[in-house]
Amino acid sequence: MYVELVDETGKLPAEIMKQTEELLAFAAQKLQLKEATEMAVTFVDNARSHELNLEYRQTDRPTDVISLEYKPDDSEFFFDEEMEVPEELLAEMDPFIGELFISIDKAAEQAADYGHSIEREYGWLAVHGFLHINGYDHYTPEEEAEMFGLQEEILTAYGLTR
Q1: What's the pTM value of the predicted model, to 2 decimals?
Q2: Long-range contacts for 50-58 (Cβ within 8 Å, ≥24 apart)?
Q3: Angle at Cα 121 formed by Cα 28 and Cα 62, nearest 5°?
Q4: Angle value at C-alpha 16, between 10 and 118, nearest 5 degrees
Q5: Sequence spans of domains, the chain
Q6: For the segment 20-61, what is each residue's pLDDT rounded down to a tens digit?
Q7: pLDDT level of residue 83 (50, 70, 90 thresholds)
């Protein structure tokens, strides 16, 4: 999997960028995503997170991670309007699955609040957002159990334990 990483803050350690790339590739293997899959991760500060949260979620505060799932739109391609295009074909033609915005300020706050390493917090946020853009959610107790169970399984297998 290809992950485009951007640090808008200029403050993120190179080790966290490397960890994020490796962890998301590991998670992609766990979900058996195609090798050609692509996504983007942008590290932002709380001010930018607040702007994005307001724009995309109509929530007037900063947040730790924003996940924007990308769904291919067949109108971009040259298909006959009457033709039904299988979603698998669209995914092959456009392997971009989405993007994450991770607040470095929130990551630092939460690592301190939860008493674990900053590496663990960045890993948690990256995998959490990654699972969201791959269709997982936590609106019901069943969804939460599935998503958080898989999230912990990925983090533990990668070596980011509490």
Answers
A1: 0.87
A2: 52/101
A3: 100
A4: 105
A5: 2-158
A6: 999 999 999 999 999 999 999 999 999 999 999 999 999 999
A7: low
Distance in Å from the first CA to the final CA of the chain: 26
How many CB atoms lie under 10 A from the CB of residue 92? 12
Using left for φ > 0, alpha for ψ between -120 and 50, and beta otherwise, residue 10 falls in left
Distance, CA of 12 to CA of 19 (rounded, Å) = 12
Residue with tokens 């994005």: 52
Q: What is the pLDDT of residue 75?
A: 46
Handedness of CA 18, 40, 118, 128 (dihedral sign): negative
CA distances, 74 to each of 82, 93, 118, 135, 147 (Å): 12, 10, 40, 19, 29
> Would you say domain 2-158 falls under CATH 3.40.390.30?
yes
- Residue carrying structure tokens 């301190």: 112
Amino acid at 72: P
What per-residue confidence (pLDDT) applies to 2? 95
